[in-house]
Amino acid sequence: MTEKVKRCHPKAYVDKTLAIIKPEAVKYADVIEDIILRTGFTIVNRRRVHMTPEQASDFYSEHFGKMFFTKLVEYMSQGPIICLIIARDNAITTWEELMGPTNTFNARETYPDRHS
């Protein structure tokens, strides 16, 4: 009688996250994408879109009712954006570290030499 051998195949666990290049930064997309790649990410998918105010409102619905919501929707629907699905190990943590604080006051305090 032959014995069955269970084969183990290594699994690659890679995290993915969404990166959005906002309207005023689209002209710097090549530079931004180069930074993303140099940080060890792979760009899995890239799409240039122009969100309608309704789409932007739906996308940012978690912020509905906050003081900045209307301006955010207007800003994100004012022109094209580039949406990237990026991947690497620890993608979310690495992306958050690369981006820095989301609060503009904290960002200016923490990274005064970075441009907004």
TrEMBL record:
Annotated ranges, domain Nucleoside diphosphate kinase-like: 14-112
Superkingdom, natural source: Eukaryota
Record-level GO cellular component terms: cilium
Molecular-function annotations in GO: nucleoside diphosphate kinase activity
Pfam families given in the database record: NDK
GO biological process: cilium movement; CTP biosynthetic process; GTP biosynthetic process; negative regulation of oxidative stress-induced intrinsic apoptotic signaling pathway; UTP biosynthetic process
Family the UniProt entry places it in: Belongs to the NDK family.
The protein, known as: Nucleoside diphosphate kinase homolog 5-like
Natural source organism: Octopus vulgaris
